Amino acid sequence: MNLLSKSLLATSILLATAAYASDVSATTHATIIINNAQILPMDGKTQIIENGTIVIQGNQIVAVGDAKVAQGYSAERVIDASGKIVMPGMVNGHTHIGMTAFRGLGESGVENRLKQVMFPLEKEMLDRQLIRTASRQAAMEMALSGTTMIADMYYHQDEVAKAVAEVGIRGVMGETVIGFPVVDAKQPYGGLEYAEQFIKEWQGHELIVPAVAPHAPYTVSAEFLVKSKQLADKYDVPLLTHLAEFRWEEAGVRKFSKQMSEEQSVIEYLDSLDVLGDNLVAAHMNYLDEHDMDLVKQHNVGVVHCPKSNLKGANGQSPAWMMHSKGIDLGIGTDGPMSSNQNDVLTVMSYTAMNARTLHKDNSKFSPYELLELATIGGARALNMQDEIGSLEVGKKADIVIFETDSPNMQPNYDPFSTIAFSAYPQNVEYTIVNGKVIVEDGQLMTVDMAEHNQEWKKVTDKVGNFAKTLK
């Protein structure tokens, strides 16, 4: 080989090496690629991406679209979503998951379930162990049914937070402030001090957002409603409460608080205290008029509609459609497991439609797309988390649920929005991904030692069951 040939050969090798190095450097490492999916982005458009692809890098979505968006990426894991529906994880905007150990008690033959069953159970049974174990049980149920974010109000919220984080879903955890002694506060309103300590310990967690939760205006004085608001503002955390839930609520608040006038609604009362604000998340909202709704909109209050709980308890029918029409940030929730029993958002979607269609005598209220909107980005907006979760968009957290469509109840799948809103069961969830981590795979929870949990759960339910037999 002459000198020229050797030189040409060396040049060819260098060029080939450079081209190979260029190809390698052009390939970006991803954690998960989901392909061949029927994607419902829930990004404000009613679009469906057929044969779509999602690329996840760490805890974020870095690409969404057709198959071309995966070009230039390699992944540790590829999920073939052929024949499956992929959508954002669902948001349960109002829960009390620590009460799951009491689910099913006092369902019949009880005149006043609150006083005869719920209060005695909470007084005698609640402790850290029960709350932690029951919260884990509920968080598992939610993860398996495609819920990736919850907003919860209860006691010992540090224990609830531990359980939720262990399962691997997100949570806004509201420590309850209430005007009488409870399990974690021996003095009335002791929850306020507990809440501040809880916030300090958990603020900045990757899954948990600590919050303050004044129970309701009929159990929390004007002074402590204001103090709760001030605490939430101080630490820039959510403020969770029950509001306008009962027929008797206005009369009850006036009797309880001398600062609410005869002319005021409960919404106007909170407005007069400067408690309404964009960090307030108000659950239920069954009894409010146009002026109340305008105040809620004006102050950017988040609202969580709990139709199943309200209908089961005969507490009224929220004007949710009217709030939605006014552009109020509206999500949906299950409420506590003694109120709605099932902890899945899927069930609540159909109740939302039935509530509005019956109330307005119009079967066009809440289309399937709008129901999925409430269950995803709507709930995120109500919690002021719409920039992080609620839709499948580049830059958002990788909170994703994948539904199989092979089961008889999922067929035919002409309209995936309708399939999810009205046909899907929790058992149709095949994958749940939160913060880029697969926590449910092939319908099985991957994060909890089930044998250990079941031993703890049995001890709790045996104890509660034995005590419940003494209630009359």
Keywords:
472 residues, 22% strand, 39% helix, alpha/beta, disordered N terminus, four-stranded parallel beta sheet, 15 helices, nine-stranded mixed beta sheet, globular
Description:
With 472 residues, this protein is an alpha/beta fold. The protein is built from 15 helices and 17 strands. Strands 1, 2, 3, 4, 5, 14, 15, 16 and 17 form a 9-stranded mixed sheet that branches. The protein has a 4-stranded parallel sheet with strand order 6-7-8-9. Helix 3 packs parallel to helix 4. Residues 1-21 form the signal peptide. Belongs to the metallo-dependent hydrolases superfamily. ATZ/TRZ family. Residues 85-438 form the Amidohydrolase-related domain.
Largest sheet: 9 strands, mixed
Number of helices: 15
Radius of gyration: 25 Å
- Would you count the extended β strands for me? 17
What is the average of the pLDDT values?
93
The residue ranges in which pLDDT falls below 50 over 5 or more consecutive positions are 1-25
What is the terminal-to-terminal distance?
A: 103 Å
Percent of residues in beta strands: 15-25%
Q: Helical amount among residues, as a percent range?
A: 25-40%
Q: Indicate the overall shape.
A: globular
Structural class from helices and strands?
Answer: alpha/beta
